[in-house]
Fold each of these.
Amino acid sequence: MALLAIDTTGSDCSVALRVAGQPDLCRSDPIGRGHAEYLAPMIAGMLEEAGLQAAQLTRIGVMTGPGSFAGSRVGVAFARGLALATGAQAVGIGNLAVLAQAAGISGPLAVLHDAKRGDVILQVWTGGVATSAELLPVAEVAARIRELAGDAGHLAGSGAALIDLPQFTDLALTTIDLPALLDLAEAADAAQAPPLPFYARPPDAKLPGGRQP
């Protein structure tokens, strides 16, 4: 197995590599912008460090969002193109799932992404089973979490600080854990994890004729 993981959904450009019998390689650079130009050389350097050719990759896991609109598209497009070129299998992994994996909490866990404009994206894990992600106004989130998770549990994600739930412990977990991404990408069922961007809401930009990008 040779698994490459990619995350360009935030301000960092991050890649990780898992090769059977070798320690994981993980790198995250806070570049802000320019993921499209930065990603390919970053991956090439990591493959060289591991003594691996791109053609030897067997699976590519890519973060799909929610996150930066442009960044999500960059990572997904690159992963799909590299998979096509190498014959590797590409799978998409959601950001909220990676945060939940990194939290390692067996009890109720609500993961929230700050979607701006007074909204958050919420996904709740109970007993290892996740709800569907949903976009909600901040004012409605606390009641929805109690409905899905009960009266006590844990919170994670960039939107956790926006709500007041005294019986829920904020884990202050907001950054992507690359080993957790590798774990989920390795275990993912490709049929259930297509490499497609996940957006908080439809893009504001429109192509000629009113089409969305």
Amino acid sequence: MKSIYKNVIIASAIVSVVLVGCNGDKTAKLAELKKKQTALTKQINELEAELASAGVTAEVKTKDVATTEIKTRQFDHYVKTQGLVEAEDNILVSARGMGVITQVFAKEGQVVTKGQVLAQIDNSLIARNVEGMKSQLELATSVFQRQKNLWEQKIGTEIQYLQAKTNKESLEKQLAAAQEQFDQTRIKSPIDGVVDQVNVKVGENISPGMPAVRVINGSKLKVVANVSEAYITQVKKGDQVMISFPDLKKEVPAKVSFTGRNIDPLSRTFALEADLPASTELRPNMTALIKIVYASYPSVIAVPVNTIQDINGEKIVFTAEASGNYTVARKKVVTVEGVFDGLAQVQGLTAGEKNYNGWLPGFKRKVSI
């Protein structure tokens, strides 16, 4: 029994000696590694400081990327809106007199001229009155002429002469009024154009102000739209406009012919108009998409929007520059002056530099300068 106990004590002592020896080796190795780590950290810090002072990235990665040479170009500032085609002369002709429609001369699609009769209201009673007044006026004119001759010869009284003159002038005014009333029974076209709509039929009653015929002059068309009040000081008469018609797959260049000064209190917009060239394809109330160029710069630098990064509140573009055997990314702070159609007009870049086409996977966003 004592022999067994003695053997156990000896074995335990041997294991303890082995463990102490192993721990001593690991401690020495750890100390050696920490010493190397300190040296490497120092070297890394020195290299990072040198790279930072040179303005290049602290970590260089090589990767095949696409770059684009920065060039000056024309850049337009514009606003887009939707509008409608309107005819400059789009008139719904109304009746001026009242009565029964006896004739309709206008037909839809018919070309008419200014003053042409489109429809006739019954004027038989007025016509008889006009004829009766003409006869009375002829008699009054004859009496007046005789009284005038006698008065010039100092025959008769002045009152007879004045009565004849007054009677004649009164009948002239009555006849003119009757003829005007007679003319109001004829519904006439006020413009040259095409009949677009006929709203009356023979036998119908009509009264003053009731719409009868619509006449449109298609040679004078315009686009009418509303633009946000944010552009009230930028959009002005004479600005270039590109008008597209989705249904026709057609674009028409034009110029702003009118800008309203009043802001609509509900939509917060102002009115805009642009004259259109004559066209057989365009129709009133057709939808139009309008691009209004309110500023144009012939030679500025513009880059794709997706190449601009927002880093710590700054707008950054990374340009490609040669550094030894590598091409490295250099950070450039830019000022964005306008964004249109995926391009941004910027200040802070120079023509001839190359910028990366978008942010590329594998490049860190944190770049030291």
